Amino acid sequence: MSEPGYIMKLDDSVIHKIAAGEIITEPVNVVKELLENSIDAVADHIQINIENGGYGLIQIKDDGTGIRKSDMPLACARHTTSKLHKYNDLRTIGTFGFRGEALFSMSCCAHVTITTKTFQEEYGYSAEYSDGKMSSDLKNIAATEGTTVEVRDLFYNNRLRLNARPKATTDAKKIYEVVAKYAVTYPELSFVLSSNGKEMLQTYGGSKTEDVLKLLFDIEDTKSIFTLSFSPYPNVTATMFLSAPSFSSKKKMNAIFINGRLVQCQSFKHSIDTAYSETVGSGVSPFYFIILVMPQENVEVNVHPSKKTVKFIGEVEIGEEIHKKIKESLEQRRGSRPVMLMKERTHKTSQKPTDSPQIDKFISQISQKPAEDAPPLSQRDKARQMLGLPLLDAPSNEKSTNEEPEKHEEEERPIAPPSYKPPEENKPQEPQNFLSESDDEKSEVKNEPKVEEPVTQDLPKPNIPVENTHFSDDSDENQFFLPKVPKSVKKNTLNTEKAPKKSSTSDTRYNLFAELKYKPKVVSAAEQGMKTLEQLLTPPTVIAKPFRNVELQSVLEMRRNFTENSSKTLTEILKGHSFLGFCDISNFLISFGDGLYLCNTFGVVKDLFVKLILDKFQNFPQLRLDKPIDIAQTVSILGNDGEKAVQTLENNSAMLMDYFSISIENGKLYSMPSIVSNYRPTYSAMPLFLSNIVNNVDWENEIQCLSTLIDEIASVSSPIPDDGNDKEVEMKLMNQIGSLVLPVMKEESFVASMDATESVMKLYTAASLFDKFNQ
């Protein structure tokens, strides 16, 4: 047996770095802490400069009270502060800072310089800090009243965090959002934010919250937002700026401030989202700014290392009142956004339900010799009964089948409920658009002899229990629709409907589904009209969704950004390329003009998938996995908390399903989006995909959330080198990419981003190859 380890006190430097890692995780944390320090210092003007997304430089300059000369050696020491003297002060603390850890943490992971001057001093002072201590002499310096803090080379001593940093623009956007939120909440102050010398934001102070809100969020229509002010709880006031149903803005973000402190509150967010979904409709991403003011003794601020969450009295009651007020106000403004309601289909009470051409076609495809005994029902009524349609009032006879169907006016009629109900334990998946015609068939009918047809009546969804069988087609065409009726069958149907029926005294009873009995058989796409009924009712691998127009401004903005940041040269090459073949799963060769190009499969395909995901957002067909994936078990492969992963994903499962067709239920992943028709990814990196969306997605930030999800979905759907370990899988995947994925690049709407330029390398030109052969 191994001996137990000895308990030892950690070295101070280790303790300091661990503590710093909890508070400062990215540049936006530095900006937020320094911004709050400036507000605590009663500043009127705050100027923020950043470089390289904040990793190169973060400089915040204010005109506040400054720091005394005697306090400069302790400015970055741990647990030193001028805002708190004893623990009980936390109950009434009115400042942002109280622990004395922010500047200390910055000095442990960056190079910090502080320059300051108070109104009593004749000149200012400047010093550099490292690991909480002053690392340089205190210098006298000419300075204006206030404090300037410079944080350079963030995470210079933590290569892992430095190498894992996102693009500079991503961090710059996060910083912009934080500064904008404080600028709205503190309209009396002046804020200026610059990135790499370019101004991103400026407010002038002395304004109203509404004015700053409209300025920073490009709100021109005053009716786009509305304000609610009320008291949701004793001694609590709430001021809320909310989006009207018709609101549209390129910059959409949300914020909750409690006593001037920016916090996250899931219960409030849920109350607001629920109020909008119940009133305006699902899929709406509301814009809101909530400013709550309550007695400080009712708020517990010492809850989270970064102070992003707080506890306060009456949280549940306040959330319920917020939900109630928002819902009432939205209902009053509902007229500003038209809601399309489904009309009930009505018919004249004097009219009998008549047969539609679909039934005639259905019967014409099932030609069966009559049996001996006389049937109590006609063929037509038997078919209607089996499909759940109402029977005709009188029994059908030979004469009735010869008569032309009764003409109907073009008006809406009700659909009768199906007469068959399945047992409870075998709940069905309901097929949609059963028996439908295609446009090309309709055009062919025009060339046939004119036949007076009745107005068709929609057939109901038959409640027939279905199960997954091994003959499910993998094609996108195999959706919940009955495939096309062959032209020959359609012609025969039209002809026989007008032909006189031969007189017969023999019985017409027969087994309607005798010839529909399932026989294992591969049916090609061209013969889909000849599929058996069991095949038609089998749940497909790919399930289509009704098309919806995308209204999320964040997605529309991402589409524009992708197009604006595209490479015209690479787009031209990939659009006009000739595919030559694969070197292996990781690389393939193409030619364009007189050039030969080597392409990295993952990089090129992922870039294409990002574009397609943006184009197909919230309209993906649903690609069902052969076997559901256990989320907890999968993420545990990489050492992640399975229960946390399941909880996080199930809490956001509705959004994932609505936007990306990702189905999550009972801790399992059932489906992914179908990005390219008939393309089946291997999902070899599924453990990494699930871990990344659990750990890296900011579910509170719409743009960051969707951007990360799109990037991760594109990555997990793209081929990776590990796919080459299995030669059979590799060959199948290469065939799919060559025949299904790469041809998509030749479409008119295709563009390649600048990121993809690193994945394509020009090897030779025809002239250079000719020279080499001559040598």
Automatic annotation (TrEMBL):
Q: Which NCBIfam families match?
A: mutl
Q: Which domain of life is it from?
A: Eukaryota
Q: Do you know which CDD domains this protein is assigned to?
A: HATPase_MutL-MLH-PMS-like
Composition bias type Basic and acidic residues, residue spans: 400-414, 443-453
What SUPFAM superfamilies has UniProt attached to this entry? ATPase domain of HSP90 chaperone/DNA topoisomerase II/histidine kinase, Ribosomal protein S5 domain 2-like
Q: Where is the DNA mismatch repair protein S5 domain?
A: 213-331
Q: Which InterPro entries match?
A: DNA_mismatch_repair_CS, DNA_mismatch_S5_2-like, HATPase_C_sf, Mlh1_C, MutL/Mlh/PMS, MutL/Mlh/Pms-like, Ribosomal_Su5_D2-typ_SF, Ribsml_uS5_D2-typ_fold_subgr
The UniProt entry, under PROSITE patterns, shows: DNA_MISMATCH_REPAIR_1
Chain spans, region Disordered = 327-359, 389-486
Which UniProt keywords are given for this protein, alphabetically ordered? DNA damage, Nucleus
Compartments in which it is found: Nucleus
GO cellular component entries: MutLalpha complex
GO BP annotation list = mismatch repair
Q: Please identify the protein, giving its name as recorded.
A: DNA mismatch repair protein, putative
A Pfam family matched in the record: Mlh1_C
The signal peptide annotation in the UniProt record is: none
Chief location: nucleus
Q: What are the GO MF terms of this UniProt record? A: ATP binding; ATP hydrolysis activity; ATP-dependent DNA damage sensor activity; mismatched DNA binding
Give the UniProt family note. Belongs to the DNA mismatch repair MutL/HexB family.
For the keyword DNA damage, the answer is: yes
